[in-house]
Amino acid sequence: MSYDQRRITRWYFGGVASSMAAMVTHPLDLLKVLLQTQKEKLSLAETTRKIVREQGVWAMYNGISASLLRQYTYTLSRFGFYTVGASMIDTTSMMSKVLLAASGGAAGGFIGAPADLLNVRMQNDVKLPQEQRRNYKHAIDGLARVCREEGCSHLFNGASIAATRGAFMTVGQIAFYEQSKDFLVAAGFPSRMDTYILASIISAIAATALTQPIDVAKTRRMNARPGEYANMADVFYKTAQEGPMAFFKGSIPAFARLGPHTVLLFLSLEYLRTRFGYLPKDVQLRRY
After folding, report:
1. Tell me: the pLDDT tens digits for 248-285?
2. Alpha carbons 12 and 77: distance in angstroms, whole number
3. Which pick of 39, 126, 152, 154 has the fewest CB atoms within 10 Å?
4. How many Cβ atoms are within 10 Å of 77's Cβ, its own excluded?
C-alpha cells in the first residue's frame, strides 16, 4: 500500500467534500423536496419543465446558499464526529461503525437543523404562488427573518426528526461505505477510485432505504406553516392518510440525487485524504 493510501482524513474534510458534491447535485435535491411536498401528481420531468419554463434554468439552484450552509454545519459535524471518534476507538467491526456513525449523525442533524430548515424552504419557494413565497435573499437573511418573524426557537422546528434522520443517513453513508470498502479491499480489490465508487454506490442505496420515510416527514414538518401540524406524530399520521407510498414520494429523485452526491462526496473525500491527509505517526517514523 502506498503512503498516499495510508493517509488519514482530517476532521473537516467531510464538510469540504460534501460542499463540492452539493454544487453538482443541488438541482436534484431541489426536485426531491418539491416532489415530497407537492399535492398534485407531477413527474420528475414535468416538475423540471415547469420550473424552467416559468422561472428559468437558474431557479434550479434556488436555495444554494442554504445548501452550502447545511454542508458546513450538518455534514461537517457528522463526518468530523466520526473521524475524530475513529481515531479514539476501534472501528474494525460493523457494529462499532454503526454506533459511532449514528452518534455523529444525530449530533450533526441537530446542529444543522436551522440550515436544513432554510434549505427546504428556499427550495420549496419555486413552486409557490408569488404572494406565498418567503423570498429569503440568502441563508443569512433567512436565519435573521425566521428569528425576527417566528422566533429563533423556530429554527429548530423539526430538529428531533432531523437528528433521527441524520443518524440513519450517517449509518447508511459512512458505516456502510467504510465496511464495504474494507470488505472489497480484503477481497482483493485495489485501493483506488473504481473500488471507492462501488463502495459509495452501496452506501447510497443503504442510506436511501433507511432515510426516505423520515426524510418525507422531516421535509413536510420543516416546510409547514404555523398550526399545520401539531407535532411529528401528527406529520406521520396525516402523511399516512395519503397511503403508505406517501412516505416514499420522491424516492426516485431522492436516490437520483443521493447516489451521485454520495459518489462525488466520497470521491472528493478520498482525493482530499490522499493529497492532503496526514500520515499516522508510525508511518512517518518509518518513512523518515
Report:
1. 776 776 787 789 999 999 999 999 999 999 887 765 54
2. 8
3. 39
4. 23
